[in-house]
């Protein structure tokens, strides 16, 4: 199992997958973060290896996939979490976004997913089918903001567009690779208590908004909520599911807007 990212949702998923018996390889930017997560999983009795580097670079992603194959023999599953807010580069309302900010936001959120999906699929196509007749499964992590905007508090149009691009990538690749026994799906979280959401978690207005928009969580979601959904989508229990986006949003997308 290959996981991109080593904090928040990615860390929760890596722990969950390892607890279920999967051999996990974690790839992310920060080597200390990767090493700490891997050591934690191994100490708990799981199997986890890691590699570090900028996942916007082809060589870094190719190395991560190679290491995963070396450690586990296959790439049966991929969870592509790695991404980030583009606010520091100028992402915001469209009329204020500089071209450099737009490109940086897509680079942070679309390029790593494209590269790791591409390289993982290349490996999966060569693998022998499992007992369900499948060669591998992929889950990309999108965002509820791609389809259920919150203009008052989350007017980051580059980020929303980038996450929408991932959903399109899921549908088109799922259609193409289904005949080869490769599944591609997405989970689209709402507001989750992760390091990336630290700004939101410190803002009383955002917390009040989340309490209304995510009534099933009464506020921010836990990373484990998303990890559990990803586990299902990657597991044999979802072996006939592909091309779908599963909203894990505490009710955000079906709750009346409050801002």
How would you characterize this protein structure?
The chain is an alpha/beta fold and 259 residues long. It has one domain: NAD(P)-binding Rossmann-like Domain (Rossmann fold), CATH 3.40.50.720. The chain has helices at 8-19, 31-43, 58-72, 99-109, 111-124, 157-177, 198-201, 204-213, 223-234, and strands spanning 2-4, 23-28, 47-52, 77-80, 136-141, 182-189, 245-248. A 7-stranded parallel sheet has the order 3-2-1-4-5-6-7, with helices on both faces. Helix 6 links the parallel strand 5 and strand 6 (182-189). Helix 1 crosses helix 9 (223-234), helix 3 (58-72) runs parallel beside helix 5 and helix 4 packs across helix 6. The longest helix has 21 residues, at 157-177. The radius of gyration is 18 Å and the shape is globular.
Question: Tell me about the biggest sheet?
Answer: 7 strands, parallel
Strand order of the largest sheet: 3-2-1-4-5-6-7
Looking at how many chains there are and whether they match, the oligomeric state comes to single chain
Kindly state the percentage of residues in helix. 40-55%
Q: Which CATH C-level class is it?
A: Alpha Beta
CATH architectural label: 3-Layer(aba) Sandwich
Class by alpha and beta content: alpha/beta
What average pLDDT do the residues reach? 96
- What portion of residues belong to β-strands? 5-15%
Low-confidence runs of at least 5 consecutive residues:
none
Global outline: globular
Please tally the β strands and state the result: 7
Quick one: CATH superfamily? NAD(P)-binding Rossmann-like Domain
Distance between the termini: 39 Å
Number of structurally distinct domains:
1
What is the N-to-C succession of helices and strands? EHEHEHEHHEHEHHHE
CATH topology: Rossmann fold
Q: Which value, in Å, is the CA radius of gyration?
A: 18 Å
Q: Give me the number of helical elements.
A: 9
